[in-house]
Amino acid sequence: MNNIYNYTIEKLEKYFIDKGDRKFRAHQIYEWLYRKRIDDIDKMSNLKKEVIENVKEDFTIDKIKIVDIRKGKDVVKYLFELIDGNYIEAVLMKHDYGNSLCVSSEVGCNMGCKFCESGRLKKIRNLETYEMVQQILIVEKEENIRISHVVLMGIGEPFDNYNNIIDFIKIINYPKGIALGARHITVSTCGLIKQIEKFTKENLQVNLAISLHAPNDELRSELMPINKANSLDKLMEVIKEYININNRRVTFEYIMLDNVNDTVECAKELCHLLKGLNCYVNLIPYNETENNEFKRSNINKINRFYDILKKNKINVTIRREFGSLIDAACGQLRAKKERV
Ligand code: SAH
Question: What are the residue ranges spanned by the domains of the chain?
Fold first, then answer.
């Protein structure tokens, strides 16, 4: 049986048409789930009894549940237990422009980035669409707020769970549902070339962020093993195509790792790589973890790097820090829970 929160409006319409019923039933159900936020099929009072019985027979409406909450200044981190007993995390960040939620896309991750806590647990499985949708619904209910921005930057590689994240985006973007604007949704990828090519054709108008972290293949392959099969020149080629076809600016995330990728040479190389591209660079102070040797660059080195990019007319920002005191670096809370 399939969870009802897995269904895009098109898929739910199709379900009813296949049943010999009418499309608008799907809209009624969407109204209950995403507008009135009713999560009990029996309470959907404008549906005929027979429809309710059918829906209850064909769908589950199971929910993931919060098992731990950590609060910091302007940041709240949630640990969720899934129905099969696995754990994932979501992080709420309160900005002056709204509330953004960092959503996980997989249980574990196979990308193996050397600096990343999430990847220490190999991928167990994809998250189903409903498990991503519910991260939003449950945090909104718990905090009594509306989330205005969603970033797929939690545990997992979104493009390694391609079909489910596309449905997730369609569901949260649907105007008569959660209605998050495409420009308020960001997908972050370590740079899987085939999927970026596919994504280019979806024409979803969401934001695309690329975790770059190094300006050349040698260093990038060391930090991010997936670079060996997705080399920089090919990656830049598909990104250019994405920018041209979708007419969108791309974000490059660049974690600042002390004496690894924060040198003057790296900054210059990065300028060369990104020259003329419609993009901006987000410099991210590294969240240190006890499980590897990487250290955060000090603020002088971050500023030096920033200045070089600026001077070369590359758009650049330094990410405001959230949550390092509450283990908000992706995967840290889960790791503590499971002691791995
Ligand atoms: N797999 C996707 C999304 C998840 S990671 C991706 O690679 O983009 C989200 C971002 O957090 C990535 O840029 C990742 O490199 C970065 N990140 C991972 N560990 C971090 C840490 N300890 N401190 C700061 N950023 C980190």
Answer: 2-60, 65-331
pTM of the model: 0.95
The tokens of 314 are what?
Answer: 């590359």
Considering Cα of 160, then 162, then 164, then 169, what sign does the dihedral take? positive
Q: Looking at the domain 65-331, which fold is it?
A: TIM Barrel (3.20.20)
Say if CB 165 and CB 105 are below 8 A apart: yes
Average pLDDT estimate for 230-235: 97
- Across the chain, mean pLDDT equals 94
Catalytic site residue 128?
no
pLDDT tens column, 150-202: 999 999 999 999 999 999 999 999 999 999 999 999 999 999 999 999 999 99
Report d(CA 70, CA 90) in Å as an integer: 11
Helix (H) or strand (E) segment spanning residue 245: helix 232-246
What kind of fold does domain 2-60 have according to CATH?
Answer: DNA polymerase; domain 1 (1.10.150)
- CA of 119 relative to ligand 1 center, distance in Å: 10
d(C-alpha 123, C-alpha 168), whole Å:
19
Q: How far is CA 239 from CA 209, 228, 285, in A?
A: 10, 17, 24
Q: Assess whether the C-beta atom of 255 lies below 6 angstroms from ligand 1.
A: yes
293 in catalytic set: no
257 burial via Cβ count (<10 Å: 0-12, 13-18, 19+): buried
pLDDT > 90? residue 243: yes
Q: Where are the beta strands (DSSP E) in the chain?
A: 2-3, 59-60, 65-72, 75-81, 87-95, 98-102, 106-107, 125-126, 149-152, 185-189, 207-211, 250-256, 279-285, 315-318
CA dist 142 → 138, 139, 185 (Å): 6, 5, 21
Q: From the alpha carbon of 115, which atom of ligand 1 is closest?
A: 19
Query: How is 95-152 classified by DSSP, letter by letter?
Result: ETTEEEEE---EES-SS--TT-SGGGS---EEPPHHHHHHHHHHHHHHHT----EEEE
User: Which residue in 88, 82, 72, 66 sits closest to 334, CA to CA?
Assistant: 88
